[in-house]
Design goal:
Elements lengths: L1 E6 L12 E6 L4 E6 L2 H7 L2 H12 L14 E5 L15 E6 L6 E6 L3 H7 L4 E5 L6 E6 L4 E6 L7 H12 L3 E5 L12 E7 L4 E7 L4 H7 L2 E7 L14 H18 L6 H4 L4 H7 L21 H7 L18 E6 L9 E5 L3 H8 L7 H14 L3 H16 L5 H4 L9 H13 L2 H6 L3 H12 L3 H7 L2 E2 L2 E2 L9 H8 L13 H6 L6 H21 L4 H4 L16 H15 L5 H21 L20 H6 L1 H12 L8 H27 L9 H7 L4 H8 L3
Parallel strand pairs: 2-7, 8-13
Antiparallel strand pairs: 1-9, 2-3, 4-5, 4-7, 5-6, 8-9, 10-11, 10-13, 11-12, 14-15, 16-17
Helix pairs in contact: 1-2, 2-20, 2-23, 6-22, 10-11, 10-12, 11-14, 18-20, 18-26, 20-23, 20-26, 25-26
Length: about 700
């Protein structure tokens, strides 16, 4: 049954833009079109920038909106470069909402066809606001030029079933964004974004996992958003200013990937699983809630295991992507849950899932990881938050901070894969200890202290969250720059802003605070740029041009950066430099920091990270690298550890490392043009051209 309908005129994309966005208010079932101004394109570019600007202007100005208030929005957009079929990684969508975990603005990116289809259906961005009285599906028909809100009360809850039924109704030329039943009962529900795999004749999925945006979608009583576009997609579909140059730069990058990927990381064969043995070898793979960075059984979760398990065939989550890293396992027989005994196709797993629900929980069983990956997808769960939250609960259990009274009888020791799977199934039903873990680490810490008398200080040290968001899966103890990459990220500890471990820890390319600060400026800015344009970052840094090591700044991979500059100019017609694209990101990045300020966050205190991200919390951790720590005490502090108690050595080391992190904050704030409290200065926002009246008024109250 159609509840509401809106018809619009179809049109061609011009230089990467439709110049209009779609707003849907579910409370009054009103559907409207909004114009995109030249100023909006100039200041916010697209993608994440458009989403932030739309959300900023849609929220009430007189109060702070909570994540489950109807006024909160789910905003989804691609960007001007998104939907280019000849350039690798051009199929990204970016989702933005007020997060159930952090209670402030969150962005999360995802592959698949939704963003490009949305654009080609007529819209640069989508805003979904309000809350429907009953469950609905939003259908955007880019063939007929209409938007419909339909009754969805008869649809199932799981993402896979929803997509299958919508494909039967509307055909395979659709992309569906949905979540699942666990998103209704947890704070870290993910968005599944689908695409049709013609080789396997099935719909597949990627996830916008971070921050619980799937939870927001389900709270609005939206079971799915489907967009249809049946037209032929070519370079010209995106309306580029110079189609010939687009083809040229796309061909260069694609040919390089096809030539070099088999010699380097084999992304097209094993995907991000290639990272597991590398992280294990360099003491960076999280083990037992980030206590340790390597394990003898790490190889059981690595690339060679998944090389044998992944189904052969093309695995690009957007057409024409030469990297094609979205692998899956075919005919996997499930051993637990409602589909026990059935053979299914599992999308993934990716490195973050393997490390999160696997090694970080002390579980080194590839089939277990595949099974929990499948259920997380159809239930709508972010595997990063899930894995890190489970690992925290396991350590609390092993330390005696909680017992079976708290877990409902579950034996939550590290390595107990049966308990981990039960926990996930509980989340889908909103039952038991699963419902508690599903609230995230920040709320678990509070509950365990209040109800079970757990020590708040030790939980603060081992609870791997910052700003309310669970850490993604890298051990940062020996990389001060990566500690900053997590702690100083505007949305919380997610590696897509700055991944600097190798440059800092392994290659020692940034020994001074000023060098670290410079990298913690440039890399988050350039990585932000991908989210403004509808691009995946993996083609930039997971296949390296020959001769890159001999360049002046090898970590930046400037050969690729210059190609992206050409790509942007070819599509939009705007002649830009490398400095210009960094400036684009600075505007959006600083605006998001200011958005946090508006929500009651965004200052120095909120950039704090748990001590486990900085150094050893337990004696066991210290013993595991006692020689390393003793050497550091002698060489960096002039302190002789011989004959000293372990408590004293750990206290001296902690004082030093925490002080180093505070110095890093100072250096980064200065480089970014922020004051000592981490707030962008009026001078900075004027330089960036984002000194809007409400922004200036807000900053004046905090300076």
């Amino acid at each position: 049954m159609v509840i509401s309908e809106f018809k619009y005129k179809l049109g061609k994309v011009e230089r990467g833009y439709n110049n209009r966005t779609l707003h849907i208010n579910l409370s009054d079932m009103k559907i409207t079109s909004k114009p995109v101004s030249e100023t909006m394109k100039e200041k916010f570019t697209g993608g994440r920038g458009f989403n932030l600007w739309l959300l900023w202007n849609s929220l009430p100005k007189n109060r702070i909106v909570k994540w489950d208030d109807p006024e909160n929005e789910v905003c989804i957009a691609s960007g001007p470069l998104g939907g280019t079929p000849v350039y690798p990684g051009s199929g990204k969508s970016i989702a933005v909402a007020i997060s159930p975990l952090t209670e402030t603005v969150m962005d999360s990116n995802v592959g698949g066809y939704f963003g490009p289809y949305l654009k080609f259906a007529g819209w640069d961005a989508l805003e979904v606001q309000g809350r429907a009285e009953s469950e609905v599906v939003i259908f955007i028909d880019g063939d007929e030029g209409k938007v419909q809100i339909e009754d969805a009360s008869q649809l199932p809850s799981e993402s896979n079933l929803i997509t299958e039924l919508l494909a039967k109704k509307y055909g395979n030329s659709i992309s569906v964004v949905s979540s699942g039943p666990a998103a209704e009962h947890t704070r870290f529900g993910c968005l599944n974004s689908s695409w049709y795999d013609p080789g396997r004749k099935m719909h597949r999925y990627k996830q916008a996992g971070r921050g619980g945006i799937g939870t927001v979608l389900r709270n609005k009583n939206v079971k799915a958003i489907a967009v249809k576009y049946s037209g032929k997609i070519t370079v010209e579909t995106n309306g580029p200013a110079d189609a010939k140059l687009v083809k040229q730069v796309g061909t260069v990058h694609s040919q390089e990937i096809r030539q070099l990927d088999p010699k380097q990381n084999e992304m097209s064969t094993v995907g991000t699983t290639h990272l597991v043995p590398i992280m294990n070898d360099f003491d960076l793979l999280p083990i037992n809630n980030f206590r340790f960075g390597s394990h003898p059984d790490g190889e059981k979760l690595g690339r060679e295991v998944y090389r044998m398990k992944f189904h052969k065939g093309f695995d690009g989550c957007w057409m024409g992507c030469a990297l094609s890293c979205a692998h899956g396992v075919k005919d996997f027989e499930l051993k637990t849950g409602p589909y026990r005994g059935q053979k299914v196709f599992v999308n993934g797993p990716e490195y973050e899932t393997i490390a999160g629900v696997g090694s970080n929980c002390g579980i080194f069983d590839a089939d277990y990881v595949i099974e929990i990956n499948y259920y997380c997808d159809i239930y709508g769960l972010d595997t990063i938050s899930l894995g890190t939250a489970m690992a925290f609960a396991m350590e609390c259990y092993e330390m005696g901070l909680i017992d079976k009274r708290a877990t409902g009888g579950l034996d939550m020791r590290f390595g107990n894969k049966k308990a981990a799977l039960k926990l996930v199934h509980q989340m889908a039903r909103g039952e038991g200890f699963g419902a508690i873990v599903g609230q995230g680490i920040r709320r678990m810490k509070k509950l365990f202290a209040e109800k079970y008398g757990a020590d708040p200080k030790i939980m603060q040290d081992i609870g791997m969250e910052a700003k309310g968001l669970e850490f993604s899966e890298y051990v940062t103890k020996e990389s001060l720059a990566q500690q900053g990459g997590y702690g100083l990220a505007v949305k919380g500890p997610q590696h897509d802003e700055a991944w600097l471990i190798f440059s800092d820890m392994v290659r020692n390319e940034m020994p001074t605070f000023e060098q670290k600060a410079e990298n913690l400026h440039w890399f988050p800015m350039f990585r932000t740029w991908f989210g403004l344009n509808g691009l995946c970052k993996l083609p930039w840094n997971d296949v390296i041009p020959e001769g890159n090591k001999k360049t002046k700044e090898p970590a930046k991979i400037m050969g690729h950066v210059r190609n992206y500059v050409k790509f942007f100019s070819a599509v939009t017609g705007r002649k830009v430099t490398v400095r210009d694209i960094i400036l684009m990101s600075e505007r959006v990045y600083n605006f998001q920091r200011i958005f946090n300020l508006r929500m009651g966050f965004g200052t120095r205190e909120h950039d704090t990270i748990p001590y486990r991200a900085v150094g050893p919390v337990t004696k066991e951790e210290y013993r595991s690298h006692a020689k390393r720590y003793a050497k550091q005490l002698r060489e960096k502090l002039g302190y002789d550890p011989k004959g000293k108690s372990m408590e004293e050595k750990m206290a001296i080391l902690r004082k030093h490392r925490e002080a180093e992190y505070e110095k890093l904050k100072d250096a980064v704030y200065k480089r970014r043009g922020w004051n000592a409290d981490g707030v962008p200065t009026l001078q900075k926002v004027k330089e960036l051209g984002i000194d809007f009246p409400d922004v200036v008024e807000l900053l004046k109250r905090h300076t």
